[in-house]
Design a protein that fits this description.
single chain, about 400 residues, alpha+beta, L-amino peptidase D-ALA esterase/amidase, Ubiquitin-like (UB roll), 7-stranded mixed beta sheet, 5-stranded mixed beta sheet, 11 helices, 16 strands
């Protein structure tokens, strides 16, 4: 069950975007698993994709199409990753794009494909073809919630959020949905995320905004340390609103970028709260580091330790596991006598060993909470980084052991 994740809020429609969904029966026959986004003709689009070298065919095709044209449609399927089958996967992705083009009158390159699900299984192109007309007849500006549900795989709840801000007296809306519960250490974005605004923003400015937002959100989460073959995050500006942001030096760029970042951060944290089998939402803050990278390296070393993660699941104040992870993190010339470790507001380690004020009861009380803050103070500099992770439970093993059955 998701950790303190509220129900899906009301998602503001974005003028210039309609979304339709359908059940193509790709993996199961009970829920929609296909979503089609129709974008207005003046829309601009920025994206970031997985850095996994074995990237899925939809990632390859979407990258190619973004180079040549501005998209008019985004086609998203769940239940099948369309990855790991070489030219067959590429041809299947292109066939789906061609079918959208035939039905809508756009060109094949104006369609961006996205897939999520099992790797190495043939994409059921004929099922998608059969369901596409339904996605067209159900196109609706209010389709965000249905799309959030259609792109789910092992997610237990749909993930989405909206903000509306006033910048210099003019309103701007930003709405986003995402999916992801496992195979999460994005290193670019999340498994799939689609975010849109009604502002007028040229592609280079939009890309700069997305890069910043992703680095502060989706690149600061991990469930299991695995980067998917299919990760993609798309930011669309429909140009239907009044606000024009034509440069990163424009006075409206900073507040606009902050609004997009806020949406991305809420979606990223929702992924961790709904991580496969998660019972704990854990914030790891590394402070007083000598560089940004060493803060991140240390945070991820702790987050990826199976012993640390299982201790969190057991609500066991076994702080020695955190201590050991820090010691093996590879930080050069680390003086253990300057390191302080906190669970919440309880100092557990200082001066090279257990804090004289620490008691098992204090640590145990923190570890029983569903949300836990771990702080590591290095006294090596002024850098600080924060990442978000989950515990490792029996259900995580079960879910992934049974994923293909």
């Amino acid at each position: 069950m998701a950790v303190n994740l509220p129900e899906l809020p009301s998602l503001h429609p974005i003028t210039g975007i309609k979304i339709g969904t359908a059940c193509a029966k790709i993996k199961q026959a009970q829920h929609d698993d296909l979503a089609l986004f129709e974008l207005s003709s003046q829309s601009t689009c920025a994206a970031v994709f997985t850095r996994n070298v074995f990237c899925a065919a939809p990632v390859t095709i979407a990258k190619q199409h973004l180079i040549t044209t501005s998209p008019r449609f985004l086609l998203v399927n769940s239940g099948n990753a369309n990855a790991g089958r070489g030219e067959h996967s590429l041809n299947d992705a292109l066939d789906c794009c061609e079918e959208v083009a035939q039905l809508t009158g756009c060109t094949k390159s104006e369609v961006l494909p996205f897939s999520t699900g099992v790797i190495g299984v043939p994409l059921p192109v004929e099922k998608i073809r059969s369901a596409l007309p339904t996605t067209l007849t159900t196109l609706d500006v209010q389709g965000w919630e249905k799309a959030a549900k259609a792109i789910m795989t092992t997610d237990t709840v749909p993930k989405g959020t909206s903000v509306q801000v006033s910048i210099e007296g003019q309103p701007i809306r930003v709405t986003g949905i995402a999916k992801g519960s496992g195979m999460i250490r994005p290193d670019m974005a999340t498994m799939l995320a689609f975010i849109a605004t009604d502002a007028v923003v040229p592609i280079p400015v939009l890309q700069a905004c997305l890069n910043h937002a992703v680095n502060q959100s989706f690149n600061r989460i991990t469930v299991d340390g695995d980067t998917s073959t299919n990760d993609a995050c798309v930011l669309i500006a429909t140009g239907e609103g009044q606000r024009v942001i034509d440069s990163i030096n424009h006075p409206a760029f900073a507040p606009f970028c902050q609004a997009v970042t806020d949406v991305c951060l809420q979606l990223a944290q929702a992924i961790i709260r709904d991580a496969e089998g998660a019972t704990k939402f854990i914030t790891l803050s590394v402070e007083q580091g000598a560089s940004q990278q060493e803060c991140l390296d240390l945070a991820y070393t702790i987050a990826h330790s199976p012993l640390v993660k299982t201790a969190f699941f057991a609500s066991d104040a076994n702080w020695g596991r955190i201590l050991a992870a820090i010691g093996r993190s590879g930080l050069e010339n680390l003086d253990i006598h300057t390191v302080k470790i906190y669970l919440g507001d309880v100092c557990i380690v200082k001066n090279g060993g257990v804090s004289k004020d620490y008691t098992e009861e204090k640590g145990q009380k923190i570890m029983r909470e569903p949300e836990i803050l771990v702080r590591v103070l290095l006294e090596r500099g002024d850098y600080q980084e924060t990442i978000f992770t989950s515990d490792l439970s029996h259900d995580y093993v079960r879910i992934n052991a049974e994923y293909r059955t």
